[in-house]
Amino acid sequence: MSGTTDAATATPAAGVPIPPVEPPPHGLGVSLPSADASAKTQGTFPYAADLWADGLLWAAVLRSPHPRARIVSLDTRQAAELPGVRAVVTHADVPGDAGHGRGIADRPVFAKDEVRYHGEPIAAIAADHPDTARLAAAAIAVEYELLAPVTDPQLAFEAEPLHPDGNLIRHIPLRFGDPEAVGEVMVEGLYRIGRQDPAPIGAEAGLAVPRPDGGVEIYTASTDPHADRDLAAASFGLDPERVKVVVTGVPGATGDREDPGIQLSLGLLALRTGCPVKLAATREESFLTHAHRHPTLLRYRHHADAEGTLVKVEAQILMDAGAYADTSAEALAAAVSFSCGPYVVPHAVIEGWAVRTNNPPSGHMRGEGAMQVCAAHEGQMDKLAARLGLEPDEIRRRNVMATGDLLPTGQTVTCPAPVAELLHAVTEAPLPDLPKDTPAAEWLLPGGLEGAGEPGAVRRGVGYALGMVHMLGAEGADEVSTATVKVSGSVATVICAAVETGGGFSTLARQIVQETLGVEEVHVAGVDTDQPPAGRACHGRHTWVSGGAVERAAKMVRTQLLQPLAHKFGMSTELLQITDGKITSYDGVLSTTVAEALDGKELWATAQCRPHPTEPLDESGQGDAFVGMAFCAIRCVADVDIELGTIRVVEMSVAQDVGQVLNPRQLRARIEAGVTQGLGAALMENLRTTRGQVRHPDLTGYALPTALDAPDIRIVHLVEERDVVAPFGAKAVSAVPVVTAPAAVASAVRAATGRPIGRLPIRPQAAVAQSAQGTPQGVQG
């Protein structure tokens, strides 16, 4: 045995004092680990696909194999007669509203007369075995009359109506300043953004259980349970009180996460059979049915003076909503509002449209609208720099906005907007070593270790991008959230219907209560629709609104706790403080524990948080539509094989304004994840279609970035300038790096190749230099 001793088991010598055990750090500003981290890593976290119930039936959905067709006949008799089949439901079996949708209720639960996209549900089956359900779905006889699909959004304006509501969902004609203004220098560009899929790790799943009162409970990974409950109740023809949505574990969400059609099918089958019904979607179904990022076509014209100061921006933005509206009107508002980027632009003429096609459905996804226009306006800034002979960072520096400047919507930027500071931080950050500077290190060529390229064909490019997003809802959306905080003994409980989607709300809620009440053990209750609504989990709203509600409730409990003590000692509650579970007065006269002060009582309080109101954009695209904004700067260093067009992103340097850091480790993880998702949109993620037919709807045909694709992500600067109207002064952090990263990658590839790079994801042929001449290998461009 060696002479060393494990410090964890060592016994101190006699007479040697044992140092006190320090309590684990807690509260705001601490990297508190996630409460469910252990369960997720050990595989015991309860996802929807893991659920079970006695008497369980299995569901399957028949989906359209065509992007557009008229349903001539639908015969379910053969399917219904199969042994083990308990129910078959179609459009005729929907007792309530036939239409549903996140924004506009224009999507049928089941197609009735016409299918409008590949994968649209036509019928659902419940059977005693999943294979039986799938066989029954295949046995349904559908006669189609094929119709020519409209898949080019540019043709949607002149095409016959694809929907009773028409093809145009929304048109925003923004006018700001003088539309006749011109600059001495003008550059134009055409940009195309592909269809990025959320590609959740866990495909959609759910369980519906009938209730004795004739209602139904739906267990699913919903990110907005109250909205889903209301959709379901309307479709089932029930009062909302008779439909309950219980949120199961959400395996990460970068969009709406759930296809509401799955929940509606499950509920109808459970009500019809009187039995619990479960559905676990296949990966193919997941790709076909949930919402994707809007494919977008953008035409831009930038005007500037001879010094590079922007004079006017003209743009046309066309967003492909797919077959139904979903949140396309909201995405278009963001795209038009942020079309000029975080720059001072005195004049703007922007036309934005969202149209229906027969392509897969589009909807909410991180940074919707803002990501597409960021790729375009940053491409324009690179073109303007090249035209004027300026460095890409310099043209941006001359035009960045600051607090007090105006958006092209006429709204004043009242929140902190340290864009110049962010740009300076990434510009001054050290550049990564060149291969020639580290000859002993293995240099990964673009294309990976087995890449076929030659080092002599590799060029290095350095690119920049500035991006911005809005936080919370927009255009008059009511962002109220409600939370309850209870304290009993040495344990506190938070009840709030804010869904934990990976953004860290559950951890933040614990930290808020720990900070306010000094109680270390804090539990966050599960979410269901018996609780007051908290809204959907996007745009960082739970950090702001739900976190604000938790803080207010905790402070109300704090007042209840301290008032008796303050009254007893003849002082105000402001003179008492709670630290590490102890209550002390400013003069040291009072010192007691929180548990002693409670004296066996349970204290609780409920509070709401509602940010200041916003307003819809008017007929000229003007209005105070947003509560707050967040900004980001990214410098990308990329190596490009200019003969093969292969790209390796070497490093992404990030500077971001975050308001206040509430959990350092969690914040950095969110930024790194956002950059990686943006990298996927820049280089590989595109759900491809052929005349509306989805090609390879699986994880072999749809490429996602892996650990081998992720570059070195360096967070070089975080600006902690509190937003005074936000609880804690914090800002959302995950969406803005998703928005900014694709534009930065495109900028680096432009620098390496001299090519315009107007399409995302970047195709290899677009990264092939037009001539063999270029920056010598090993020299930064």
Automatic annotation (TrEMBL):
Name of the protein in question: Molybdopterin-dependent oxidoreductase
Pro residues composition-biased segments: 17-26
Superkingdom to which the source organism belongs: Bacteria
SUPFAM superfamilies: CO dehydrogenase molybdoprotein N-domain-like, Molybdenum cofactor-binding domain
Biased composition (Low complexity): 1-16
Region (Disordered): 1-35
Molecular function in Gene Ontology: iron ion binding; oxidoreductase activity
Pfam families for the chain: Ald_Xan_dh_C, MoCoBD_1, MoCoBD_2
Positions of the Aldehyde oxidase/xanthine dehydrogenase a/b hammerhead domain: 42-148
